[in-house]
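Hey,
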Amino acid sequence: MQRVPVAAAVAVLLAASAGPVARQQEGRNASSMSMNSALTDVPGLKVGHFTRGERPTGCTVILSEAGAVAGVDVRGSAPGTIETDLLDPVNLVQQVHAVFLSGGSAFGLDVATGVRKYLYEHKVGFEVRGARVPIVPGAIIFDLHVGDRPDIWPTADCGYRAAAAASTGTVQEGNVGAGAGATIGKTAGAGGPMKGGLGTASIRVAAGADSLVVAALVVVNAVGDIIDPRSGTLVAGVRTPDGKRLADARKLLRGSSTAPARGGQNTTIGVVATNARLTKVQATKVAQMAQDGFARAIYPSHTMGDGDVIFALSTGQIETSDVSRIGALAADATVEAILRAVRAATSIPGYPAARDIQ
């Protein structure tokens, strides 16, 4: 066996670990004039929101009307999903036509009906004998406790309206769509949680028509705190008893008097996407790797009280076999989307935003 000098091996490892960060910065510089810094930077995808006015809740729809190969990874222990079994690589359907993210707990799964209706009217779907059936998986967060009207949630009509509003342009972030009722910081509720939200981000590896694009859109409604992994800085989360400062779940969970997490009020859900051509197996792997972004930016993540779900979409405009690279970039984009979600959020009664707590 050939021996590799230690210095050379270290240099290779350092170059590999720095690669995604360098590419991310390169992509931002090269494409700042041509990209939305959003999921819509992936060709073939549209994003639309519908936010209810009666209380903070809503839904977000990602359309892939030409079809997108999809995978999914469910990592949390309290998920709420629909049609995820279809994404198993051994099953028949190869492409989806939309993915939705919604508030409203299990009631929010009704959004799927409205999205299907919209796609059916536009003759989009999986061809079966005499009809087209739109394939629309989705996931929900629990937000029924936000506001004073738990009898209000996103309906089929909300899903239809979000689909009709979908575009390839800039994606609104913060208290919008499925992020309208999102909250964070419920690990040890001494001073109460804070406002979460919806965020999106994209990475382009190089300029040009054939460049690789990887993007993410995330609804942040976590048990845990939000941490910037680049600096270790606490961005938002559970507050101190006076409600004025961040308590830091990393310290609280090592204490002896930590209260249990608030069950059934959580879940972070999202979509990562790329213009690279992937199989269902590869898309599933990308979804698995993208979950690393949750673990980097949310502490704790994937808890018994979270239903964390990530979908991965491939629109297939370019050829590449480097699935590991795409998965690593998907995790990077997921981190950025999480940070953007909480920084774009604004306060609602009982839930201050990150911009209001130092």
